[in-house]
Batch of 2 targets.
Target 1
Amino acid sequence: MDRHATAVWKGTLKEGAGTLDTQSSALKSLPYSFKGRFEDESGKSGTNPEELLAAAHAGCFAMQLSHFLAENGTPAEKLDAKAVVTLVPGTGITGSAVTLVGTVPGISAEKFKELADKAKAECPVSRALGAIKVSLDAKLA
C-alpha cells in the first residue's frame, strides 16, 4: 500500500515558503516555512515536518496498541497518545517521545504497560524511526 504527499517550496530557506498536500486532501495547500520550523514554538505560523512526523507517530502507535488490546480481550475505550518530536538545529531529529493515557476497562497496569511497549516496538512508524530515540510513558486513566 502506497500513500503520497507533495511539498512545493518557493524561494530560499529562510525567506521562502511552501505548501503541503496529501493524497487524502486532509492537508491541502497547508503552509510551512522556516519560521514555523525553527522559530515559532507556538505553532501558529504553519506546520513543519516534525509536527507531521509527531502526528504520524502518535496515530500509528494508538492504532497498533488498540489492536493488541482487542487481541487481549480488553478493547480500549480511549487512547490519548501524544508524540513530541525533537529537532536540534544542525544535528537533526533526535527523538520522538510518546505519552499515552489509556482508558481500558478490565486490564491490569502491568499488562497495559506490556502491550504499550509492544506497540511502541512494532508500530510501523516507530520502526521507521529506528535511527532516533523513541521513548514511551504509558499509564491508565
Note: The CA atoms of residues 28 and 136 lie 31 Å apart.
Target 2
Amino acid sequence: MSDGQQRDFEEEYADLGATTQNAMDIAETSMDIVRQFVPDETLADRVRQKSVHSMGDIEFQHLLEFTGSDDRGDDEDAPVRAGARAVLDEATIVTDITMSKAGITGRGHNCEKRKAIGNGAELAEETGMTRTAASVLELDKQGVYDGAIATIGNAPTAAFALADCIENGTRPAVIVATPVGFVKAEESRQRIREVSEEYDVPAITNVGRRGGSGLAAALTNELIHVAKDVRTDDLELESTAEARAAQSAGEDGEDE
C-alpha cells in the first residue's frame, strides 16, 4: 500500500459510523459521555464502552464476559488482542445472519465479510435443524471458521453449532457471540464460554437475555477500531494496561 493509499485508508476510517464532521462530533461527544461511566484503562474496557454505547445502557458494561486466551495469557484483554490481530491479518469475518453482517463496517480493514445463513439448506431440510445451525456446519466443513472472526448476533442455534465445531477441532481466531432471546439464548452463550475456556478460543459474550445483531456488530467494529489504532501506531497491542495508563498520563502531562 502506497503512502497516499494509506492516508486515504486511514482518513476514510476517521470514525466507525460517521462520515461528516457533524456526525463525527456527535459520535465523539457520545463516547465522551460513555467514558464518564465506563473505565478506560484496558482493551476490554474499550469493548465495554462500545457495548454501553450500542445498548444505551450504562449497566450493560457489567454483563460482558471475556474468556479464552492468546499467546500472552488468559486475561480479559486476550479476546480483544486476538480479534485485533485477526483484523490486521485480514481474517474472514463470518456472521450468522445478514443483519449482523450489515452492521459491521466495511471501512478500516481488508477483511472479507461473509454470512453463514444461506448455506446448508439441504442439511437443514434433511435433519430439521435450523437454517442457521445448518449454515454454520456447512461453512465449517469448508474450513471457513478456522482462523476467522466468528460473529453471532441473532441465532442461539448458530452458537450451539459453532461450539460443537470447536469441540471437533475448529479454531476461530476469536468469537463474538451475543445471540438474543428467551429460548436458549443465554444457554448458547454459556456453551460458547465453556468451549472457549476448555479449548483456549478467545471469546466475547454477554450474560442475560439481551444482545442482538446490533451489539455483535458493534463489538466486532471495536476490534476493527483497535486494529486501526495499532496500524497507525496509536496503540501498542502487546503493552500492559499499566503501561498504557502510564503512557496516557505522560501525554496528558505534555498538554499541560
Note: Residues 42 and 241 are 5 Å apart (CA to CA).
